[in-house]
């Protein structure tokens, strides 16, 4: 495979050291030439020390962000941009054509998919419209008339990283958190085995892999302990969801519960690399190589790769970089 001079950029790289290391390993393992550039608002982002070059950019909310990112891409001769946080997905999807004018690909799903994923009410409506089991969301009228059963789950309509997600056990908690959490959404609480599922697709929607990861433990909304599982019922359910998604591209991370009845209930769509993706990669699902193939304009054959290992467990812990290079 000839992949000479393939340069990629991770935006909002932050703490995503494990992911960037996996990409660096893929470059070395497959003899790919090129560089891995990271971007963030801080020179002290840990990921700054994992790639080949780190660049500072404005905040995603800054009107200069898109122009600054484009200039960085031109300066570093970037071929593929890989966004890593929810808050920039819709913005960059809206400017995809601008980057493509300069032969820069964005590993991004359609603006429609990013919009429905960023708004939990739209996610709920999408699941319902496509006959996909999802927790019921209660209307203001149903809440006023107490047409629900405790416990409930409440979360921000446009939240991410599990921020503000709260289990509600009584009316006092409901009254408080409904006002405390911005754009609060009240829904049925579901339980069972919780899965995060990594799906890889090319720019034409062909699926390369579906890797379910059972979430054993989470911290700050991100999986800290997990294990790969080849659960065919989960994989089939995920295929149904993916086939209904509008314009999925790259890594799509779905969250679902497998309830004691065996029913699969979906709760979230995240159209980006999830925090636990290193587990899927370590298990043998070569997301970095597949991503680099897309950066070269290749397509997937349509045959799914199931050669990854089952029952591989990830136990995450904190690590650190030590440097005298920073001047803060």
CATH homologous superfamily assignment of the largest domain: ATP-grasp fold, B domain
Please list the strands of the largest sheet in the order they lie side by side.
13-12-9-10-11-14
What count of helical segments does DSSP give? 11
* Total number of beta strands: 14
Number of domains: 3
Sheet of most strands: 6 strands, antiparallel
What would you report as the Rg, rounded to the nearest angstrom? 20 Å
Beta-strand content: 15-25%
User: What is the share of helical residues?
Assistant: 25-40%
CATH class of the largest domain: Alpha Beta
Distance between the amino and carboxyl termini: 42 Å
CATH architectural label of the largest domain: 2-Layer Sandwich
Mean pLDDT score: 94
Structural class: alpha/beta
Low-confidence stretches: none
The CATH topology of the largest domain comes to D-amino Acid Aminotransferase, Chain A, domain 1
The dominant shape is: globular
What is the ordering of alpha helices and beta strands?
EHEEHEHHEHHHEEHEEEEHEEHHE
